[in-house]
Write a structure and sequence with these properties.
The radius of gyration is 25 Å and the shape is globular. 69% of the residues lie in helices and 2% in strands. It is mostly helical and 559 residues long.
């Protein structure tokens, strides 16, 4: 037995060395290739060669990136002879991709205890098609946060949440796209009865990593607001991402962007609520599926997504298939969808792929086949459905939960809302008015923002429909909120007073931001400020303002 294990280990080591040599050869072929999407960053790196640390940090790269990239590139500058910006960025992304390969191997081995599977999985991750395009031709930073995300998943699977949160926090400081993992992490923490205060690790990591740049003389506030600024700068439903917005005309951005964000928040809440209410316990395999669902689901339904935003899902889906070989279709669908999304951008820069794309009237390159993006979106949708079905099957064995729990919850919630409407007509009318005013403010801001882009048509009709639809949705979900917290009130009179004063305070808060502080209200800022508003009230210890935790018998277990 020991002899066979030694032979297996030796063969695996030799195989890894051979694949490493093959990978090095392939990297060398494309070593001088790269798109100019990060051309300004390459020039920035080359300007660092004669700068000290402070000068390098103060002259940080453009496009709203955190200074962590500067730290890594300063290390490359000081400890290597690389003078080309392109080569420095490739060195950084390749190094982190190798870390991704290592943690992919560790995850597969931990879940299967098979050296052969983990070896094959690591090799496939090493040569993943989208990873190869991203690192060697596109030259972007996605391999960095992916490596830290895989490290985070590995530590969560090993039931080491603190290390997992630290890895996640570092990854978030480097690139915000790792945030797609956060809902799954919160579900894991609550299901394992781990106190949510450990989530403070995330802002702590962020602040600690930007402090060196602050000490070097860089202004702290812009660094703290990096992701807010970046999120506000993209105004299109999709940037070639294979998601649901490929089926929606781009001139409806101001209507569908806020609805998309609002809808995904509601869907996430329902999913989390039912999982926690049913006290679902996760084994390691179901937890891995949950992480993968989170990585595919959010970029699929969120607006403003780019073609590269499924990169982490591509890599984790390869890890997943070596744990669930029967579901080989899932990584094929996800990877093919991402590959199709990459092609217009990559083919525009390489003559070998140029016959696959054409240039449209706006100057962008698109697929010759008109419906390629829609097909890639359907691929991702199919993968999501397969993953949710498998997740449902997996957790049936460990709890009473099944996918129909969401349906039961929706029916019960709708019944509660109807009762509140009958009993509190004046409160319902108040909430409806607040909803209409809030939606009107949002729409007017969107029109002001978008008029320079020429996206809006039939403004009056769209504005009227958006306000009515937004007001109705606002009212309905506020009534759901009331159905959760009404148990904290002695009678309906107290509930009516609460509705009036709380809704007035919320509206006053938003109007103050808009009028006095000149903060434009769009779907992102409203969600952010309302979250802060509710958070402040929770801090003030008003217990009936715990709507999302009202089902828990003992709230202290979460904090």
């Amino acid at each position: 037995m020991k002899k066979s294990k030694s032979i297996s280990f030796l063969l695996t080591t030799v195989g890894l060395l051979l694949f490493a040599a093959l990978y090095a050869y392939s990297v060398n072929i494309f070593w001088n290739e790269g798109t100019m999407d990060l051309g300004a960053h390459f020039e920035w790196y080359e300007s660092l060669l004669n700068s000290d640390f402070s000068g390098s940090i103060l002259n940080t790269p453009p496009d709203y990136y955190t200074p962590v990239y500067a730290y890594i590139l300063v290390i490359i500058k000081n400890y290597t002879n690389i003078s080309s910006g392109l080569h420095a960025f490739k060195t950084m992304t390749i190094a982190f991709h190798l870390i991704s390969v290592f943690f992919s191997w560790r995850i597969i081995y931990f879940l299967t205890n098979s050296l052969q599977r983990s070896f094959c999985g690591a090799c496939l991750v090493l040569f993943a098609p989208t990873a190869f395009l991203n690192i060697n031709l596109v030259v972007h930073f996605d391999s960095i946060y992916c490596a830290l995300g895989l490290a985070s998943i590995y530590f969560f699977l090993r039931r080491k949440p603190v290390f997992g949160l630290i890895a996640f926090g570092i990854g978030f400081t480097i690139k915000g796209l790792i945030i797609f993992l956060l809902p799954a992490i919160i579900i894991y923490l609550i299901s394992e009865k781990i106190r949510l205060r450990y989530l403070l690790t995330l802002p702590a990591c962020y602040l600690l990593l930007i402090l060196p740049a602050g000490f070097a003389g860089k202004d702290m506030l812009p660094m703290i607001m990096t992701y807010y600024e970046r999120g506000s700068s993209w105004n299109a439903l999709t940037w070639n991402a294979p998601n649901v917005y490929q089926f929606i005309p781009s001139n409806n951005f101001s209507l569908f962007a806020p609805l998309g964000i609002f809808g995904i928040c509601v869907a996430t809440y329902l999913f989390v609520f039912t999982l926690l209410k049913e006290k679902v316990r996760f084994n390691n395999r179901s937890l891995l599926i949950l992480f993968l669902i989170s990585l595919v689901f959010f970029p699929f339904f969120l607006p403003k997504m780019h073609d590269r935003y499924f990169f982490f899902a591509d890599i984790l889906s390869i890890v997943y298939v070596f744990i669930y070989p029967r579901y080989f279709l899932v990584p094929i669908l996800i990877t093919c969808a991402s590959f199709i999304a990459y092609l217009p951008f990559v083919a525009a820069n390489y003559s070998l792929l140029a016959p696959l794309v054409v240039q449209n009237q706006t100057g962008f390159f698109v697929h010759k086949f008109q419906y390629s993006f829609q097909i890639s979106s359907l691929m991702n949708l199919t993968a999501i459905i397969l993953l949710i079905r498998q997740f449902n099957t997996e957790i049936k064995n460990t709890s009473n939960y099944n996918i129909h729990s969401i349906k039961i919850l929706l029916i019960k919630t709708h019944r509660d809302v109807k009762e509140i409407i009958k009993e509190c007509k004046s409160s319902t009318a108040t909430v409806m008015i607040i909803g209409l005013i809030t939606t009107l403010m949002l729409q007017l801001n969107w029109l002001m923002i978008m008029k320079d882009y020429g996206f809006e048509k039939n403004v009056l009709e769209r504005l009227t429909m958006a306000i009515l639809l937004g007001g109705i949705l606002f009212t309905y979900f506020w009534l759901i909120y009331l159905s959760l917290i009404k148990v904290f009130f002695k009678n309906l009179s107290e509930l009516r007073k609460f509705v009036f004063f709380d809704s007035m305070s919320m509206l006053s808060f938003l109007v103050t931001l808009q009028v006095l502080f000149k903060i434009p209200l769009n779907n992102v800022t409203v969600l952010a400020w309302l979250t802060l508003f509710i958070g402040i009230k929770i801090i003030l210890m008003r217990p009936y303002l715990y709507p999302f935790l009202a089902f828990a018998k003992n709230l202290k277990i979460y904090f």
